Amino acid sequence: MGGEFAAIERLRRALPGPPAGEVWIGDDAAVLGPGQGRLLVTTDLSVAGVHADLALIGLDDLGWRALAAAVSDVAAMGGRPDGAVVAVAGPPSTDLDLLYDGIAGAAQSHGCPVVGGDLSSAGDLVVAVTVAGHVDGGPGPVLRSGARPGDAVLVTGPLGAGAAGLRLLRAAASGTGGAALGTGTGVGSGEDLQAVMAHRRPWARLAEGETARRAGATAMIDVSDGLLADVGHVADASGVGYRLEDVPVAPGATMDEALGGGEDYELVLSTPDPVRLTAAFVDAGLRAPVLIGWCTADTAERTRAGKPTMALGWEHPWGEGSVRT
Amino acid sequence: MGGEFAAIERLRRALPGPPAGEVWIGDDAAVLGPGQGRLLVTTDLSVAGVHADLALIGLDDLGWRALAAAVSDVAAMGGRPDGAVVAVAGPPSTDLDLLYDGIAGAAQSHGCPVVGGDLSSAGDLVVAVTVAGHVDGGPGPVLRSGARPGDAVLVTGPLGAGAAGLRLLRAAASGTGGAALGTGTGVGSGEDLQAVMAHRRPWARLAEGETARRAGATAMIDVSDGLLADVGHVADASGVGYRLEDVPVAPGATMDEALGGGEDYELVLSTPDPVRLTAAFVDAGLRAPVLIGWCTADTAERTRAGKPTMALGWEHPWGEGSVRT
Prior knowledge:
The structure is a homodimer. Helix content of chain A is about 30%, strand content about 20%. By secondary structure, the first copy, chain A, is α+β, with helices and mostly antiparallel strands.
């Protein structure tokens, strides 16, 4: 029955569309209401066994990741979160205290209070986090659809750490890399620990998203499906092609992980003025974004280092129960 | 590990509380932001086998009920819905078109567009609907905590139809009442059909909630857990007792179903001036609410027709997978 993207596209077509000035299905978050201070709403599912392997990470990690992933969608619009509601369905044996501990930790760290929720029994653990936020002064929310030919493409940091962390955790679980994780008898390298933490405790780039919006970003998305998949979403929505060159790879990660691994939650954005945008990041005390390529007028052009990009990003396998990363 | 209410109370205690003027966990919807036009956010889970029995109703009914239940929480604050996001986790075999059909129907009927969503595979079908709304002029959102001794208690309509409809559907499924449902060879009574539709396609009382807010309701809640349970929530939050007299019973329903059955989505509210409130309903072209009793100063007083009320309402059995109604 097709992948997640196809199913969401089908839902979009089945439902009435938004009035002028609003954005509904198809961006990182929906935009409601006219003018400044517009309401952002986004929802994100985390299913044990699909989005997180509880043999590798804790319930508190799952909770943290669920909240951070939803907040990241607000970051990708250049917005600020106002609050989250958390719906939890799961087996009665679920350690709710541990799950809520991770949710509460991420909520506090991201300045996004948990303001409500619902709870039910179910066979699998399913956590649905919805975040409401707003855009505070300056330009409106940054959509996926605003990139123009000639715009530079930048990323807010090196990629692939989340996928590398998952690989290290799997190796440790299969007994081939336990020392790399700080578990058991040995302690792994700093890089390995960093990657594992990137998988267990990802961060939404709120300050980066807001700074990019104020400094003239034309399109923005968070790296949740994988860099090439997410740049592809922007290209599709904007009607542009792209030519990527060097991509920064996180310590301990491979280039494949940087291009295809998801859930890094760095932001990818386009702008006609990368110098102004970079200066704004530095002025705000943020790490300078990295220029990774350019938008082009030929919508069929999708290359990295001169070669056509394969669809290295993945989508959630609606139809399979496998862990997706 | 206690019921749903205990788990939510534990979550509330584990998390930081709201600043003055905001309401987080514990009411029908959370209230964010100061002043008029405050943002309402609420989330509601519908799990196949827990909240809906797919042997008795269709996936479209489940979708309709999921959206209506979340919108009802906005109605119970006296607010208007701005949009819903819908997260669906379920088996790959799920007929998404049928599910979305019911969701879209309820969205259109309630004036609450679906503006976003997420989708994942999972063992059970879990639908989490989050609605964002606002309060539009006049007094602020009506909380559960505002009832005062001497206030009248009113309900916006007769109760028990949802529970009666479920009973009729079960009887039909077991072969003892098929004719009552308009299925198979016979057609049941109009009352029976009405009850079945109340279960399959409930409505949120948005106009009633807004009218009550503007006409001086001091506390309000929707009947989702059952009248006595929900009046109990108001009494707990407000620090009052109650003395209920006659309760209007929906056609085809029993008094037990009216007192204990949930998911009717009528609103129960308190006001010091039931005449003014009733006049406002009539002026707005709405069915006059029914006075069912009074709030009292003795928090231990909880009676109906002079007798102490048992806890006839139920709560979701976190720990059991049974259909709850």
